[in-house]
Amino acid sequence: MKKFDCVIIGAGIAGMTAALYLQRANVSSVIIEKGAPGGILNFTSTVENYPGVPNINGVNLAMKVYEQIKQLDVPYLYGDVKEVKIEDQQKYVVTEKETIMAQTIIIASGRTPKELKLPNEEKLIGRGISWCAICDGYQYKNKKVGVVGSGNSAFEEALYLSNIASEVFLLYNTKKLKAEANLITKVQAKNNIKLIPDLQIKTLEETDDKLSAIILENEEKIILAGLFVFIGYQPLIYYLTNLPIKCEAGYLVVNEKMMTSVPGIYACGDVIKKDVYQLTTAVGEAAIAATFVKKQLDLR
Ligand SMILES: Cc1cc2nc3c(=O)[nH]c(=O)nc-3n(C[C@H](O)[C@H](O)[C@H](O)COP(=O)(O)OP(=O)(O)OC[C@H]3O[C@@H](n4cnc5c(N)ncnc54)[C@H](O)[C@@H]3O)c2cc1C
User: Fold this and answer.
1) What is the mean pLDDT of residues 113-141?
2) Range of the domain at 184
3) Residues 199-228, buried b or exposed e (16+ Cβ, 10 A)?
4) pLDDT above 90 (res 196)
């Protein structure tokens, strides 16, 4: 059975950054990834707020970090982690292919945005459909955009977009309306936000492989260039169900060392409970997690 001082689950920006720090600190570690390196970055058309890299395609940034860890010879395994278990105080990470012993674990498996479940939706991600107004909003300067969602995120992002886009159509469900009253008041006060309650999107229309309009269930057609979907995220921790690990709203709770409620298991990036879900925060948390993994291992 393979044995490592640290097993990192997920090769998004957080997992790869943690690997970079651990390898440079001479800690024997491995990354396990079930998809492409870079994780959700691979669905990001342009990153414009990463310091030192003014404008870069998400896939290219992911590849740059991947090349960096390859140059350092970080062991990298393709595998889908199915379970993390602790037996006789020993930690095990179980994939569909093998079981690996771990002194410590860094969970960096991210989260997945909930989708509208429309036929061509996946194809249009990064081509009109977005899950991040701070990241992609500027591409829609003076254009019409839509926002879908009933919670604080949707209302906050609609407000944010109303300062960039010419017009914002906010589609929300009044039965599930979770946005705070003050946000609703601010949204209602905006001249360029048009509220569309209780109408689902029936069709996403595309032109030249880009989103060009939406058709609602009442057959109304709205021409727009972007659609921001904020109907929630699902943290990817399905493989931890057998572990008594503290979660809040489905996200892992960590302390200032990025350690979860289970000693020796750390977490960073989009999988943790926090306020800001960005590349810069994921990278910072990964550096902290790796540093405290190293400190813990040094105490052995
Ligand atoms: C559309 C979009 C645009 C964005 N644009 C920007 C931007 O411009 N600037 C910015 O700062 N932030 C942006 N963000 C946010 C930023 O991309 C994320 O905060 C960051 O990439 C999260 O990194 P992560 O490593 O935590 O998670 P992820 O990138 O999600 O990586 C997690 C990895 O874990 C893997 N994994 C999951 N489960 C398992 C398992 N069981 N076994 C093995 N592997 C597993 C996944 O396959 C994935 O590769 C954007 C987000 C979105 C959705």
Assistant:
1) 91
2) 115-229
3) eebeebbeeeeebebbebeeeeebebbbbb
4) yes
